[in-house]
Design a protein that fits this description.
Elements lengths: L18 E3 L21 E3 L23 E3 L7
Parallel strand pairs: 1-2, 2-3
Length: 78
Amino acid sequence: DELTALSAGVFDSLTQLTELYLHYNQLTTLPYGVFDRQVHLQELGLHPGRNQLKSVPDGVFPHLLSFTHVWLNTNSWD
């Protein structure tokens, strides 16, 4: 995995997605609206490895009503 960025609508067609693991990428930010249609998402992993998230903008997770786990450790937080 060598993702360096995600576009806002990249997961829009995956409306039944319950788990998403983006480990070992080089993400530096999460765009506003990237998870808007993932209302069933329960687990999101953004660790470990080379992800370099420094912050999570307001509005990235507003529709995640089923959210139970998020892994963000080992990022370069501000």
